[in-house]
UniProtKB/TrEMBL annotation:
<dbReference type="Pfam" id="PF06429">
    <property type="entry name" value="Flg_bbr_C"/>
</dbReference>
<feature type="domain" description="Flagellar basal body rod protein N-terminal">
    <location>
        <begin position="9"/>
        <end position="36"/>
    </location>
</feature>
<dbReference type="Pfam" id="PF00460">
    <property type="entry name" value="Flg_bb_rod"/>
</dbReference>
<keyword id="KW-0975">Bacterial flagellum</keyword>
<keyword id="KW-0282">Flagellum</keyword>
<dbReference type="InterPro" id="IPR010930">
    <property type="entry name" value="Flg_bb/hook_C_dom"/>
</dbReference>
<comment type="subunit">
    <text>The basal body constitutes a major portion of the flagellar organelle and consists of four rings (L,P,S, and M) mounted on a central rod. The rod consists of about 26 subunits of FlgG in the distal portion, and FlgB, FlgC and FlgF are thought to build up the proximal portion of the rod with about 6 subunits each.</text>
</comment>
<dbReference type="InterPro" id="IPR006299">
    <property type="entry name" value="FlgC"/>
</dbReference>
<dbReference type="GO" id="GO:0071978">
    <property type="term" value="P:bacterial-type flagellum-dependent swarming motility"/>
</dbReference>
<dbReference type="InterPro" id="IPR001444">
    <property type="entry name" value="Flag_bb_rod_N"/>
</dbReference>
<protein>
    <recommendedName>
        <fullName>Flagellar basal-body rod protein FlgC</fullName>
    </recommendedName>
</protein>
<keyword id="KW-0969">Cilium</keyword>
<feature type="domain" description="Flagellar basal-body/hook protein C-terminal">
    <location>
        <begin position="88"/>
        <end position="132"/>
    </location>
</feature>
<keyword id="KW-0966">Cell projection</keyword>
<comment type="similarity">
    <text>Belongs to the flagella basal body rod proteins family.</text>
</comment>
<dbReference type="GO" id="GO:0030694">
    <property type="term" value="C:bacterial-type flagellum basal body, rod"/>
</dbReference>
Length: 134
């Protein structure tokens, strides 16, 4: 594998982690939401990755395979005066776990930073190789 493939691999990972960070930001922004655009409680979303194998002419890497909604139940709060309360007076909030999302954000941020560092190191190695040849 050449050093040029490193840019493809790390670049695809940076792109995938960027998508993950955007989804985490959306989840955190809607953590206290009672209703989404469809009128139903906001459902947390999760990003799923898929590795791209080294086969044929395709470059290896990672891509976002899917963004799915969580099926976990949202927190139910008793507030009979709320306009979205059900017959029993409960309002269903989003199922976003702020703690889980913060852990997810830190993990995605570190993975993003690590892949940027990989690209910087590969760039420095290529630069040193060119300097040795002159």
């Amino acid at each position: 594998m050449s050093l040029f493939n490193v840019f493809s691999i790390a670049g695809s990972a940076v792109s995938a982690q960027s998508k993950r960070l955007n989804v985490v930001a959306s989840n955190l922004a809607n953590a206290e939401a009672v209703a989404g655009p469809d009128g139903k409680p906001f459902q947390a979303r999760q990003v799923h990755f898929q590795s791209l194998p080294v086969e044929g002419g395709d470059l290896p890497g990672v891509r976002v395979a899917a963004v799915t909604e969580s099926t976990a139940l949202g927190k139910r709060v008793h507030d009979p005066r709320h306009p979205l309360a059900d017959d029993q007076g409960y309002v269903t909030q989003s199922n976003v776990s702020v703690v889980d999302e913060m852990v997810n954000m830190i993990s995605a941020s570190r993975a993003y930073q690590n892949n940027v560092e990989v690209m910087n190191t590969a760039r420095q190695l290529l630069s040193k190789t060119l300097q040795m040849g002159s």
